[in-house]
Design a protein that fits this description.
Two copies of one chain form a homodimer. The first copy, chain A, is of the alpha+beta class and 385 residues long. Chain A has two domains: 181 residues, 2-Layer Sandwich (Ribosomal Protein S5, domain 2), CATH 3.30.230; 182 residues, Alpha-Beta Plaits (2-Layer Sandwich), CATH 3.30.70. The first copy, chain A, is 32% helix and 23% strand. Chain A contains nine helices and 17 strands. In chain A, the strands form four sheets. A six-stranded mixed β-sheet of chain A has the order 8-7-9-6-1-17. In chain A, strands 13-14-12-16-15 form a five-stranded mixed β-sheet. In chain A, a hairpin with a 5-residue loop joins β13 and β14. Chain A is globular. The interface between A and B is medium-sized, with 29 and 29 residues. Chains A, B: This is Diphosphomevalonate decarboxylase.
């Protein structure tokens, strides 16, 4: 019997991936860039047991047995086995795969990226695979490929039809910009989410603006973003991040029929951040939104206390949610400037527009966990209850 | 003393105007197309008195005395005078100008287009100006130039720097497509509206997608729209209308900082119309949104009853608003199909998301009113109270 347990991080794109040029291999129409978030506050965790005694391969996600017939799951398994050391004895053994996300999947926080990265990374331990395996994770969920590295990561769209050059590389390591912080604002929404897979497909088929963006705007923007990150140039980084988030949602609106991911609360957050940056006469915070209403704010440590006070004032929590409103790193306190408070009056929202807030930072890539207590399976190789 | 009273209509664009190439002359970056709405339900009305006894020019709008220093107002006055018959004796007399909109300006329904068209059209009566004066209206408010004709109207962007070829022409007269109907859904919104003048300016300065749209997409779409209108091809007309509305809002979102005009209620309307067209397996209704959350629906007379029932079901009015919820033409009734009702359940909204609904149709251009009782001034030339 062989066992491996790993953790893999969430990543939040600052130059967005939206649109595939190959649906099957999951090859994107443009490069994208993301920050990898700390494993301490949000991550996927997977334990895989391989044993000659198992009679079938089973997969549990958050405690529920899943079908292993899923095409993307099968593809990842198949691809990682192709790269296995030829003499690995367990290649034909069945597997027990047990996965968990330590954040609510319902929150619409790119759980599939961390999940597929973790699955593939853990499989790579079992089959003793070396090298850049991000392209294998890509076949599970496109953006998963960016979760194979810590720090700042670029997914190269690649040129080849077989997808072998569509993989992630590190732009800068996790300790490169130590002041960088991230606030995830989880927005209340009663609306059923659009699937990003089908939204993306419809966008590619119908939006001329998306095509123009991918071919003519993103290539230049990616280079500017790499420079901004390498130079730790926050104002440029922030402006590009906000512009690219808006342009991605703009392409969604140009899709026919249109897909909407932002709601009225998202809109208030966007307007609030612009008003705050203008008030401070400096770009201090950047927002970005994926395929859902939740905001991810990038900002520097020195500005966290004031921004958190501002968010608390504009988005009062429901009394019942108070104790669990903040998750992640310890939240600093400050008192809010009177002039700032005055500016914020018009932004103030009713209670409960945000579900909770996660305060986190840029972190490392996937980790192998060696302690027995870390395994998600009991000694018999079955999931712990 | 000379007196003239006119009415001018509202127009609703189906190919949108967004972006000026000349701020001063109000020259657009692309052609646009609109339908002129019936004067019976929404219009501006203006009375102008010219007399050698007046010692100054005054202007009342909806009962309030306005400054006449407004640059656009002055420009329209100046330009129309340039075109006056040289022997018109009143050219140097002062004016009393009295204007009213017969629909709430607060509703965000392009009141400035009807207002400036009416002002210029009435001035043209006073100064005995002939010919296409839409380019004069354009200098007051760009889209006003489309309110000088009935039916279906195209505003040619023109090529000249002096703007002399940037004017409106009729694509089809008001009786061309007699089955066409319009429902204006006035959406409740507590948000202060963005000015469209400044939003448009920021879009031109910052949105690369807007530039691409104006240069590469709209020219083709305008020709397709003219064909669809001339052929009374509703499905093509409707699809182009929805796509162009979405692309205009898409450009607003690509603006930096972004401008939002749609709110969550607008979003429900968009999704509802797509779901309804899909349910009926035919494009039966088109939505379009200007620089605000209100929807304008284009549909054929035969479908009005069912669509109104659907809207009533999805957007229940507040009990207090019931008696005045529908304005305009008499609303037909029907009972709603059970399968349709079932499909609509998930769309149902709380009471009061719509303020009211105007049911109207395509109508004529401006009219001169000859009856004494139509004048907005009393016999002494001062506004009636």
């Amino acid at each position: 019997m062989k066992i491996a347990t790993c953790k893999a991080p969430v990543n939040i794109a600052v130059i967005k991936y939206w649109g595939k040029r190959d649906e099957n291999l999951i090859l994107p129409i443009n490069d994208s860039i993301s920050a990898t978030l700390s494993l301490d506050h949000m991550c996927a965790k997977t334990t895989i047991v391989s044993s000659p005694d198992l009679t079938e391969t089973r997969f549990w996600l958050n405690g529920e047995l899943q079908s292993t017939g899923n095409k993307r799951f099968q593809k990842c398994l198949e691809e990682i086995k192709k790269r296995a050391k030829p003499d690995v004895e367990c290649l034909n053994w069945h597997l027990n795969i047990v996965s968990e996300n330590n954040f609510p999947t319902a929150a619409g926080l790119a759980s599939s990226a961390a999940g597929y990265a973790c699955l593939v990374y853990t499989l790579a331990q079992i089959y003793e695979v070396d090298g850049n395996i991000s392209s294998v994770g890509r076949m599970g969920s496109g953006s998963a490929c960016r979760s194979f590295f810590g720090g700042w990561v670029r997914w190269l769209k690649g040129e080849k039809n077989d997808g072998s050059d569509s993989l992630a590389i590190q732009v800068a390591p996790e300790n490169h910009w130590p002041e960088m912080r991230v606030l995830v604002l989880v927005v209340s929404d009663h609306k059923k989410a659009y699937s990003s897979t089908s939204g993306m497909k419809t966008s590619v088929e119908t939006s001329e603006l998306l095509k123009y963006r991918a071919e003519n705007i993103v290539p230049r923007r990616v280079e500017e973003m790499v420079q901004a990150i390498q130079n730790k140039d926050f104002p440029t980084f922030a402006k590009l991040t906000m512009q690219d988030s808006n342009q991605f949602h703009s392409s969604c609106l140009d899709t026919y029929p249109p897909c909407f991911y932002l709601n009225d609360t998202s809109r208030v957050i966007i307007e609030l951040i612009h008003a705050y940056n203008e008030f401070r006469e400096e770009t201090k915070v950047a927002y970005t939104f994926d395929a859902g209403p939740n905001a991810c704010l990038y900002l520097l440590e020195k500005d966290v206390a004031e921004v958190i006070e501002m968010i608390n004032y504009v988005f009062p929590s429901e009394p019942i949610a108070m104790s669990s409103y903040f998750k992640g790193k310890a939240v600093p306190y400050t008192t809010i400037d009177e002039k700032l408070m005055y500016m914020l009056i018009n932004f103030r929202q009713p209670e409960g527009k945000l579900k909770y807030i996660i305060y986190t930072e840029v972190g490392s890539g996937p980790l192998v966990l060696k302690e027995a207590e870390d395994h998600l399976v009991a000694e018999n190789g079955e999931p712990k209850i």
